Every structure is written in structure tokens, then in C-alpha cells.
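fold-stage: in
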Amino acid sequence: MKINIKRLNSNYHLLATNEDGNEVHMDSSPDIGGEGNGIRPMQMLLAAVGGCSSIDVILILKKQKQEIENFEVEVEGDKVKVEDHSVFKNITLHFKITGNVDRDKAERAIQLSMEKYCSVSKILQPTANITHKLTVNGK
């Protein structure tokens, strides 16, 4: 696995490109001179845990023949300062699924992702308490 990161301006606007040519823009926060041209790296971590778990959950539900119409995850994280850096203390993933999906199967898929399959959550677990919520068809 390889990622190339290229600076795009005289400040902090960066372009990350993977081996397949897919791109993600990153930037710092405006309070240190960023211009809002991309996702901040700590936000990228939240996106990564949400994306990793989403792929797991969708894969498991598809194997169980669940009919997903819409799938969304809101990820919230609380950071704390540790020495000169920050870590996530709490991360909550709110899965919102609509379709012909059994709630118990969705809950189990999320648990399997969080406890067994999602590599990103495993990386974050030593510093972050990761929890989840589930809404199926608005309930």
C-alpha cells in the first residue's frame, strides 16, 4: 500500500493520491493558516473508521440478502490533548439504514465490524472509546 502526498499551494493544501489514482484533498484549520481546501487529517481518521466499518456492515448485510436502500453513517469524535498532540477520547458512529433490513442483523453486523473486522477501529481502540447507534427505517 502506498500513498503520495503533494503540496498544492504555499500553505497547507495537500493532495493525497493512492496507487489507483484516487485523490483526497487535505488542509489545516484556518486558525493556523489553512484555507479549508480539504479535510483535516484528524477528520480523515473519523472518515476512515466510518468508511471501514461501513464496508464491513454493507458486506455482511449483502451476504445475508438484506435489501439496503440507503446507508449513512455520522461519525463524531471528541479529542483530548496529550502532551503536544491530540488523540480521540470518544468516537460515536451513528448508522442510519433504510430498506428491507432486519434490525437484529444490522446490529450484529455492526458489532462484528467493531469487534472483529474493522482495522481502523482496532488501531484507534487503545486511545478511544468507540460506540455506535443504529437507526433502521427511522427507528
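fold-stage: in (second)
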Amino acid sequence: MCNLLEAELKTILVMCQEAQIPVFVIGAFSVRAYNCLLRVSQDLDLAISSEHWLRLKQVLIE
């Protein structure tokens, strides 16, 4: 499950970068990125500014 989520996260981050949507990874994956603690997660937690919400929704639907 974790490898699937990592692949999904990478895809979403690339899509956001291409669409110029600033996004921040939070939650368990952000903790893992800093190697502070290995936490198993079954979801992706992202933070974005509310001004980019509709654009992100459009990108994810496409």
C-alpha cells in the first residue's frame, strides 16, 4: 500500500508543479521525508492555499 501511495504522491506533485500549484506534503509522508519516524499511512495529506483549490480540483479530475 505504501509504495502505491508514494507513486500517487509523486504523480500528484508533478501535476501540481506543471500547473504551478504550490502544494505542501503534510502528515505521515512529511515525517518520513525527514527520516524522523517511519509511520505507516493509508492516505496522503496535502496542504494548499484556498486560492488554488479549484485549479487543483480541475487538475486531479483531468
